[in-house]
């Protein structure tokens, strides 16, 4: 009997690592943190870092989330001065004091000239020739035409007005009422004003994302965040592209919570504690209170701020790679066994597509192993008793 027990226990210990489990233990996640692809001994392994969620971490993530557009594009104050561009339509009105000048008659002392700014930035004015308009304000263009008329016209004066602003269009597309090319006014317009001109968002603000592309820069923000934070309602510039996306926000809950699966936000925002509550909370008998994790692809600015530039570059050298949006994998660790976790968790925002994972306590695997061992041992004991009868 003793030999049977020893054999069963040895077999169980040898197969302990093969016990089925609902995801990795907290120790497994912590052990893989910061490992290079070579150290992971797996081809194409994901390189990530685990960051403890404390008051600073929660504040850093929350503050960055509400200022992305202003920070990325470096603007947010007043609008830039409107200038004339290629393709703009202008009306140049020339006045003369006399009735027998180049642009006046006995019936009228003014002449209206409609022009279109050509690809070289110039347009022709009779008796003046080619005048540079592109890159100038209306007043600067007026002065340029006026100075060209000196000694040619009789006490001339000039007015330059805008009749069409092809160079000052912004493209607005996606989930809006009327996707279109929106012309910018001379006073400058913000993201919300331009979206309103395109018919407004087609869905609720907390389910609409606004992506602004300017040259080689791209930034995406939740429409609700732009409404709640006026500094994010930045001024757009000519040739900007704005795309509004309808994307109901959800997060995925996995591990030792009562509700595993994809869970909708159902509100403007959700913090970490609310996400755990939406998932039904943790199982008291199975969960590791020190093993709550949030898996996320994070903005590079946040990763660099949290880890420090030196550590960030070290992880890049180990193979940490961004996704198609230029974001990097990071895992936030949350300790629910400490009292201030109920404060910190309220300030840590959950983002769409986050994975909230609650790891099981190590004793769960031990109990499972004991059940695995006890069953054959009990069977062997019963067989021995029968044989001895």
Automatic annotation (TrEMBL):
Residues 170-218 form the Soluble ligand binding domain. Residues 81-161 form the Polysaccharide export protein N-terminal domain. It comes from the Bacteria. Residues 1-18 form the signal peptide. It comes from Ciceribacter ferrooxidans. PROSITE patterns: PROKAR_LIPOPROTEIN. InterPro entries: Poly_export, Poly_export_N, Soluble_ligand-bd. The keyword Signal applies. GO terms for molecular function: polysaccharide transmembrane transporter activity. Keywords: Signal. This is Polysaccharide export protein. It holds the Pfam family Poly_export.
């Amino acid at each position: 009997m003793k030999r049977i027990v020893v054999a069963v226990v040895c077999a169980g210990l040898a197969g302990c690592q093969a016990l089925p489990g609902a995801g990795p233990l907290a120790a497994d996640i912590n052990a893989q943190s910061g490992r290079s692809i070579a150290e992971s001994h797996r081809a194409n392994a994901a390189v990530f870092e685990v960051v403890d969620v404390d008051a600073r971490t929660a504040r850093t993530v929350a503050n960055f989330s509400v200022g992305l557009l202003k920070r990325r594009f470096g603007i947010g104050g007043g609008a830039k001065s409107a200038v004339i561009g290629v393709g703009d339509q202008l009306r140049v009105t020339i006045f003369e004091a006399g009735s027998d000048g180049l642009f006046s008659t006995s019936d009228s002392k003014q002449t209206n000239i409609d022009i279109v700014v050509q690809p070289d930035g110039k347009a022709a004015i009779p008796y003046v020739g080619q005048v540079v308009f592109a890159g100038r304000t209306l007043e600067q263009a007026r002065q340029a035409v006026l100075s060209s008329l000196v000694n040619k016209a009789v006490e001339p004066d000039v007015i330059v007005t805008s009749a069409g602003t092809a160079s000052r269009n912004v493209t607005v597309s996606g989930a809006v009422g009327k996707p279109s090319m929106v012309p910018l006014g001379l006073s400058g317009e913000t993201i919300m004003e331009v979206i309103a001109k395109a018919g407004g968002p087609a869905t609720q603000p907390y389910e609409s994302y606004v992506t602004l592309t300017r040259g080689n820069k791209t930034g995406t923000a939740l429409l609700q965040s732009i409404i709640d934070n006026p500094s994010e309602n930045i001024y757009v510039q000519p040739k900007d592209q704005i795309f509004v996306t309808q994307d109901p926000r959800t997060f995925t809950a996995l591990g030792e919570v009562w509700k595993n699966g994809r869970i909708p936000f159902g509100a403007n925002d959700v913090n970490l504690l609310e996400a755990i509550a939406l998932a039904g909370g943790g199982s008291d008998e199975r969960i590791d209170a020190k093993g709550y994790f949030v898996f996320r692809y994070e903005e590079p600015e946040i990763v660099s701020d949290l880890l420090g530039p030196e550590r960030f570059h070290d992880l890049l050298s180990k193979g940490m790679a961004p996704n198609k949006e230029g974001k990097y994998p990071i895992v936030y660790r949350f300790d629910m066994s400490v009292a201030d976790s109920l404060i910190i968790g309220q300030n840590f925002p959950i983002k769409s597509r986050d994975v909230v994972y609650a790891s099981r306590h190590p004793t769960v695997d031990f109990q499972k192993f004991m059940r695995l061992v006890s069953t054959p041992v009990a069977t062997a004991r019963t067989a021995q008793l029968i044989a001895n009868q």
